[in-house]
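Message: I would love a firmer grasp of how sequence relates to backbone shape in proteins. Thank you; the sequence and its tokens follow:
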Amino acid sequence: MDFDFNRLISRENTSCVKYDLRQVIFGNPNVLPMWVADMDIPAPDFIIDALRQRLNHPVLGYTFRDNHYHNAITWWYKHLHGWDIDTAWIDFCPGVVSGLSHAIRAFTKPGDAVIIQPPVYRPFFTTVSANNRKLVLNPLIENNGQYTFNYDLLEKQVAQGARMLILSNPHNPIGKLWSKEELLKLGEICIRYNLIIVSDEIHSDLVF
């Protein structure tokens, strides 16, 4: 699908978070809203067409996710990543943040320590705290614009009883795709201490 990136599409007065909440969030309705991952290009035609096709049926009742839903996901992972996954492994959540919240509640108890690695996606902070877990910061190490994991600090934090690590890969906002070697070293620590990894990989399909 070709896009004309010079075509201006107004999204104001459409209950758009990116534009219509600028006054509320920044106190200025004229700022350039680069704070949220929301693009100003049209959705692909095949998505719009599928929505139109569904709306041709006038009743919008309760629905379920049938085999087409699960098969589309398994096909995508097979063809894009070479990974055969079982449909039984797939569960639904309405978004990344709610998925994180579900995982925190499922695998930890109130008061448990959950590690995040700033600088990182802001809802990681609030989701841990909102679920009454102890927020533990394991900041990335920056050297001349390059970031690495702080393995030594992580091992100390895990040894003190942390139960979960929320990983961002590719990392938001630094944009780094963690290498196989980096992830194996991280995994070795997690296995040694039985630390659960919840990996937010929402940007994985943007990796070239």
